[in-house]
Amino acid sequence: MSKSRTMRRLLLLLLGLWEAQSRAPSRPNFVLIVADDLGIGDPGCYGNKTLRTPNIDRLAEEGVKLTQHLAASPLCTPSRAAFMTGRYPVRSGMASQTRIGVFLFSASSGGLPNTEVTFARLLKDQGYATALIGKWHLGTHCHNNTDFCHHPSSHGFDYFHGLPVTNLRDCKPGAGSVFTQAVRVLVLAPLQALALALVTLGALRWLGLLPVPGVVFLVLLLLAAALLGLLLCFLHFFRPLNCFLMRGRAVSQQPLSYDNLTQRLTADAARFIRRNAERPFLLVFSCIQVHTALYASKDFAGKSKHGAYGDAAEEMDWGVGQLLNVLEELQLTNNTLVYFTSDQGAHVEEVTPKGERHGGSNGIFKGGKGNNWEGGIRVPGLLRWPGVLPAGVEIAEPTSNMDVFPTVAKLAGSPLPEDRIIDGRDLMPLLRGETQRSEHEFLFHYCNFYLNAVRWHPPNSSSVWKAFLFTPNFAPEGANGCFPTHVCFCHGHFVTRHHPPLLFDLSRDPRERRPVTPGAEPRFWEILEAMQEAAERHARTVVPVPNQLSVGRILWKPWLQMCCSSSPGLSCQCPRGEQD
Ligand SMILES: *[C@@H]1O[C@H](CO)[C@@H](O)[C@H](O)[C@H]1NC(C)=O
Ligand SMILES: *[C@@H]1O[C@H](CO)[C@@H](O)[C@H](O)[C@H]1NC(C)=O
Ligand SMILES: *[C@@H]1O[C@H](CO)[C@@H](O)[C@H](O)[C@H]1NC(C)=O
Ligand SMILES: *[C@@H]1O[C@H](CO)[C@@H](O)[C@H](O)[C@H]1NC(C)=O
Ligand SMILES: *[C@@H]1O[C@H](CO)[C@@H](O)[C@H](O)[C@H]1NC(C)=O
Predict the structure, then answer these.
(1) pLDDT tens for residues 325-337?
(2) For an engineered disulfide with 93, which of 63, 290, 307, 548 has Cβ 3.0 to 4.6 Å away?
(3) Under a CB-based contact definition with an 8 Å cutoff, are residues 430 and 396 in contact?
(4) pTM: predicted TM-score of the whole model, two decimal places
(5) Which residue among 114, 142, 147 is best mutated to probe the pocket of ligand 1, counting the most ligand atoms within 8 A of its Cβ?
């Protein structure tokens, strides 16, 4: 009797231990979903009443909703570099000193350097199966088109399927052009100058005022022809050369087809989860949408209340739901941390020539993609892990997309690299309610290479101060963005510098409407001084590195071009698009 009782006790104890073990937050799977250019005003759980995002909203209901989640940069390439490495983009050289802050060509030599460590590499070393499906935008090659030095496969991803560069209007026939339009403008001006020079010289010669040798005319004519040829080639070949899908290191569809693209990538992501259901995995699902060119399949086209943008966003939400369903079906829900964010705020200036809005909503916040007003950097941040993270909780503390790096590394049992500064902070104590304070007392907001603003959340205070060293010159007057240039630039006559810095208290003025004045805030100078000291301390930790977005590294280099080689000549197309 007593013996069987002891046995039962022992069994219960063992069962209890086993249960506790299985409940412990150890080595979960990770599904990290990054939308492109989705605004914080778009998902229903952030207050949108007309755009339907039931699946994204489900993450908020079943997990934690961050309301001051910040992208490390308001632009794709630097924001993604920071996300992958947990470090400010200036540390990896992924912050441009020119006007162009992102990669535009598949055959550029810049990219995330191999000296950087991504969370994918850490997790791969811990035995995780790792995949990136969707957009990469962090470079491909360095020296030749077989080195793949910047490719996802060189940064810890076992599997890659998607766009090496980015989705652009220019990639979709009939969707208009943004980039090729800009290039046309760039080439047309020198062409006009050349034509003018030719006519003037001709006239002078005809009048006998200047004996211009014929060879000068010939050279000018050849130059003009070359420029014109270049322009025509560029416009004609941009799409096949830059808009293609890869599977692993091979080109799989060139140019890419938008037919059912969201479905195809979602289905592939679901297959990756199924293949790895029995082992720990990391899936970065990096949505192509809702960056222009917008697209939606038959089931979604014309169904939303917000035109092509709404259709694409709702279809993306459907994709999120598909992945959640697969996790549920495989009973992986309680063992998987799902994260949802956007790489930056909505692109306010994305308006079609016909006046249709193709950019999303940043809710109450000012500005958007490309600038550091809250609308450019405050992004959705949702984390769900049933049983470990509370459900339906909202956290307003400042957090960053760089925090994913140390959070994921720690949960996977990986030590952090010790030879470098990691700017992200482990999110778990905040998410689990073990602390009420973010570890980010200061955050630094860069516009490309340039420190643009400092955020300070002082200890023992609910204030969140934000000081701008400069602000972009919105145009036209009174607009909420930089419409003539399509995106705001970060230096020169495109910005206004502020001495003293323009100070806001986001806790009282989240819309950044009323700068704090010395008269209204007695601690004005004291606050600015604390922020300046922090900025100086931070600046001392930034080591100069080669700039990956220099003109030389973002140019198109023919020898780095990837092509389906099966068709002869310059056409650079796969004979048959992939079917999946
Ligand atoms: C490409 O570059 C890599 C690294 O620089 C080198 O090892 C490789 O031999 C090169 N391949 C070709 C075909 O030149
Ligand atoms: C897209 O998917 C739908 C439904 O699955 C299918 O009927 C259609 O043929 C697909 N379109 C293309 C171009 O693959
Ligand atoms: C909801 O999203 C749509 C699409 O971005 C936008 O037009 C609309 O203004 C948003 N509504 C709110 C309340 O933010
Ligand atoms: C998953 O976790 C939730 C929350 O703790 C719990 O209610 C549910 O029963 C768990 N499901 C499974 C299959 O263990
Ligand atoms: C913040 O509050 C704690 C406890 O209330 C106190 O020990 C600490 O000195 C305070 N720090 C500052 C900077 O005021």
Answers:
(1) 999 999 999 999 9
(2) 548
(3) no
(4) 0.91
(5) 147
